[in-house]
Design a protein that fits this description.
The protein is an alpha+beta fold and 106 residues long. Helix content is 14%, strand content 24%. The protein contains two helices and five strands, in the order E-E-H-E-H-E-E. It has a five-stranded mixed β-sheet with strand order 2-1-5-3-4. Strand 1 and strand 2 form a beta hairpin. The radius of gyration is 12 Å and the shape is globular. Belongs to the adrenodoxin/putidaredoxin family.
């Protein structure tokens, strides 16, 4: 299991625990945890409605792909640590990270 913190649009933080052996994406875990993540493209990196900001732990994660960066650059506002939750796999690299929801609330 991997434990990380999610900050919602109101600034509230909650610890989330997710299995790291099922190949789940951060987007899938956020949706299953009932966070307001639209993910209208279903995780194909085509819509950027699962936009998150990695507040802590960004150096542990893989860098964004060119496809992901293309989507992020089309957002009205994105940050150096912005990512698409659909492109981040739940793994030990996410342990202790803090993820801030951005989505439609940029």
């Amino acid at each position: 299991m991997v434990t990380f913190t999610v900050e919602d649009h109101d600034g509230n933080r909650q610890t989330v625990e997710a299995p790291d052996d099922m190949g789940l994406s951060l987007m899938e875990v956020l949706k299953a945890s009932e966070y307001p993540v639209l993910a209208t493209c279903g995780g194909m990196a085509l819509c950027a409605t699962c936009h998150v900001e990695i507040v802590e732990g960004e150096n542990e994660l893989c860098h964004a792909t060119d496809v992901e960066l293309d989507q992020l650059e089309n957002l009205p506002a994105y940050f150096p640590t912005s990512r698409l939750a659909c492109q981040i796999r739940i793994s030990p690299l996410l342990e202790g990270a803090v993820v801030k929801l951005r989505g439609e609330d940029n």
